[in-house]
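User: structure tokens for this one?
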Amino acid sequence: MTIERFHLARFIKPPEECGCGFKHEYSLKAALFGRIEECLELLDEYGIRPPYGVFYDPITYEIAGMDVLKILGAKGFVVSSPTYDDAQSKLKKVKELKLGTVIAVGGGSVIDVTRYVAYEGNLNFVAIPTAPSNDGIASPRAALYHVSQTGELVYTGTAPAKPPDLVIFDMSIIASAPKKLISSGYGDILSKLVSIKDWQLARDDLGERYCKNAEELALAALNTIIETAKDRKEFDSLNSVKALCKALILSGAAMGIVGSTRPAGGSEHMVARHLEIGFKRKIPHGVAVAIGTLAMGTFHELKNPNWWKEDDYSVESMKKYLEKWKIPGKLEQLNIPVDLMVEAITESWKSRPERYTILHKFKPCSE
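Assistant:
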């Protein structure tokens, strides 16, 4: 049995050493790299016990959900949408069945619904991603939507959720994910260039609490993928994708130790969410985030004297990374109307008035 165990202990400092005031509590025991069936044999070792419920969507059921159900003799749940309505209905069923562990097999929507159920039900939680498409895999928050009376999705920020106790990466599945989803993962990690600077603005302008260890974790994730961008290997090669998976876990840990998405989501995510809703979620999350990162990075370079001085972190370097990762860097490549992008930049911050960013500081207008 060949399983690589990626532990975070060496990256997370004791709270008293950091001195930030956050508790640095994080439930992820390990990320395992190996075949799913072999990794599932280790659940008991990590204190993760039945009865099990497995969450998936129709596509991820075929990819791996069906196999996990059979191996564990678990109950199955089909996630239809990343909404509070769907999550609450699943939570009710999980409580009725008195399950002890929920397992997400899928991407962002499946994992978000499952982590919310795990938090509300006080359950063990295992994530088995089928694509390395975003850094929410190991996050302590769930990106869920409300549904308006007209059926529109309404986003008002993330909900409290549980980070996984264990993450399982089967690289035979992950590396064969659609290229646009692999690109999406890189885009989500690149956003740390902006989110960290937005957080520093809030620290310096408003006295918001700041965690240096969370910054270190976010930058460790960022530097991991920058190194792959400089490598001659393709962005979707096995080694590159494995490095991306570790970066996604590091970014999740940055959020985990402060119990918030603050280290990993700032103005670039606000812009991205606005674009996603405007396009009815037809743009991969990380691709929308990359567009937001490029725009907000440019805004920071113009307005923020504390913007990064390192060449690797410049907007020009960002453009090179996006090209390497096959992420479109221009609006017309994604058929995004200029009016929608202008609206995202001028209006999106109003959806999160409490999360101070460069957009809150300067409040750009459309003129």
